[in-house]
Amino acid sequence: MCVYCTLRPADHLDHIVPCSRGGSGALVNLAPACRPCGQSKGDLTVVEWMAVRAAETAAGRDPAGSSV
Question: Which pTM was predicted?
């Protein structure tokens, strides 16, 4: 199950802190995620991505990765 949306099965491992931001491939930095959430998160940290999703929801837009 995707740890981000908890709606879809995880189909890959996402870097919690992206490699481009100094994250590693260590198991503690990997989380099971679905493709829509992983692609939506991109090079953002989890905290940054959640803030973007909250802003989209507050603006009345459907945040990326939220639909099943």
Answer: 0.78
